[in-house]
Design goal:
By secondary structure, the protein is of the alpha/beta class. The chain contains ten helices and eight strands.
């Protein structure tokens, strides 16, 4: 199945998380552990997922000075998550040092621009330019710094693949099954992501808030 699904475990109950992982079984191999789950359950959850044979995207969005990021990744390394995320806005020196710190054992993914941000938000942050151009520029910086790929919305994925290369991973959050109140702005469907050449999609609420999480996974290409 491509794009492969990474299920976001943004839940506040560890037993519910493990029940969900058990329910999805072999249908899902990748899980995202971000702020919510990591700050509550720490390495215990990461290690338990890996003991179950699952791959972990540790989505801590590292954002600090180069030396601090380097030593943070040194601390993460023994736990061997498959991916770690880092804000591309930290700059090239920090990105290069972060990549060096992984020792080639963990995939480093650069956050290009949060999917909750639109052009009006960027203007308030004094970031000028077209969203797609900003994302592409940051993706290039990540590639030049030796990262394995980036996190970007479905709306920029095709441009990144075309301009930077098919072997450069694109991981896409903001995948939606239904419309409604949303805190993300640059969203799309699984089918959109597939058409744009995305490698992985991150899906959380549409799966864990569903009465039939397994059915959501099985029907993704129909939506």
């Amino acid at each position: 199945m491509k794009p492969e699904v990474i299920v976001a475990l943004d839940l506040m109950d560890e037993e519910k998380i493990l029940d969900l992982v058990g329910l999805l079984g072999s249908k899902v191999s990748y899980y995202k552990v971000g702020y919510i789950a990591f700050y509550r359950f720490g390495w215990d959850l990461v290690d338990r997922l890996q003991d179950l044979g699952k791959s972990v995207m540790l989505d801590l969005k590292l954002d600090d000075i180069p030396n601090t990021i380097y030593h943070a990744i040194e601390a993460i390394l023994p736990h061997k998550p498959t991916f770690i995320t880092i804000h591309s806005s930290v700059g090239k020196e920090a990105l290069v040092m972060a990549q060096e710190a992984t020792k080639g054992e963990i995939g480093l993914l650069g956050i290009t621009l949060l999917t909750s941000l639109g052009e009006e938000d960027l203007e308030m942050l004094s970031i000028s330019g077209d969203v797609r151009d900003i994302v592409l520029k940051r993706a290039r910086l990540c590639k030049e710094s030796g990262l394995e790929g980036v996190v970007a919305s479905v709306k920029e994925a095709e441009t990144i693949k075309r301009e930077i290369g098919e072997d450069f991973l694109v991981v896409t959050p903001g995948i939606r099954i239904f419309q409604g109140k949303d805190d993300q702005k640059r969203t799309g469907t699984y089918r959109d992501a597939k058409e744009k050449g995305v490698d992985f999609v991150v899906i959380g609420r549409p799966i864990y808030d569903s009465d039939d999480p397994l059915g959501v996974i099985e029907r993704l290409e129909e939506v």
